[in-house]
Amino acid sequence: MVTGANRGIGLGLVKEFIKNKEIRHVIATARDPDNASKLKDIGDSRLRIVKLDVTCDDSIQNAYKEVEKIVGDKGLTVLLNNAGAFVKYSTKWGHNRADIIKNFNINTASVAVITQVFLPLLRKAAEHGNSDEFSLDRSAIINISSGLGSIANNTTGSGEMGTLAYRISKSALNSLMKTIAVDLEPEHILVASFCPGWVQTDMGGPNAHLTIDQSVTQLLKSFSQLNKNHHGGYFNKELEPIPY
């Protein structure tokens, strides 16, 4: 299941997952499925588009019920938290609490709630796994984070783009997922976070270094290599560790 899948990296990830004929269901969420034309154009019977507003708890619960019907007793093998927002904020500009909160609400709080709500389905998948090993084939929570979430690597501050609120929301996401990784380690549910690189999306802009295809192709290669050694980690798209 990929959140925020109607465009950008989320859409690209869905297209990559669909290429794997062994996958029974690819669940793509969008706030407005009726207008998710690019998802509909994929035209694969294994693709299920589910309505999900990540900021609305009722919507999250409704999405859970719909996904539960799709996956049944086998559970949800992968929860890929991709939905995100970048609302500009800088110490050089006037203060605006709402802009800070919007970044945290979508990039951190929503991920926390979605992960908790969908845990029962991830646990079902783990119980039905053929192996006890940490892997994408058993049960996994994958998060699209950002290199800007690294506190250790922060040398540019808010920058010209006004990344302050986005930075701290992604740092919080990394902390959230490290904590969840510790909590879920006894259940062997894999948790890992990734920076997809600077990608040509609505958020990344046309001058970004990577196309969506370049980013997601490499991400899928890295996802397939995940094991216990990567549990709770924070990586770039090549599976190289990023310092927290």
Task: Explain what the structure shows.
Helix content is 39%, strand content 12%. It is of the alpha/beta class. It has one domain (2-235): NAD(P)-binding Rossmann-like Domain (Rossmann fold), CATH 3.40.50.720. The strands form two sheets. Strands 3-4-5-6 form a four-stranded parallel sheet, with helices on one face. Strands 1-2 form a two-stranded parallel sheet. α4 (97-127) runs parallel beside α5. The radius of gyration is 17 Å and the shape is globular. The model has no long low-confidence stretch (mean pLDDT 96).
Brief digest:
The protein has six helices and six strands. It is an alpha/beta fold and 244 residues long.
Biggest sheet, spatial arrangement of strands: 3-4-5-6
Count of individual helical segments: 6
Helix content: 25-40%
Second rung of CATH, namely the architecture: 3-Layer(aba) Sandwich
Integer average pLDDT: 96
The description of the largest β-sheet is: 4 strands, parallel
Structurally, how many domains make up the residues?
A: 1
Number of strands: 6
Work out the strand percent. Answer: 5-15%
CATH structural fold name = Rossmann fold
User: Please, what is the CATH homologous superfamily?
Assistant: NAD(P)-binding Rossmann-like Domain
Counting helices, strands and paired strands, the structural category is alpha/beta
The separation of the N and C termini measures 26 Å
- Classified by CATH, the class is Alpha Beta
Runs with pLDDT <50, length 5+? none
Shape: globular
SSE string, helices as H and strands as E: HEHEHEHEHEHE
| Radius of gyration based on Cα positions | 17 Å
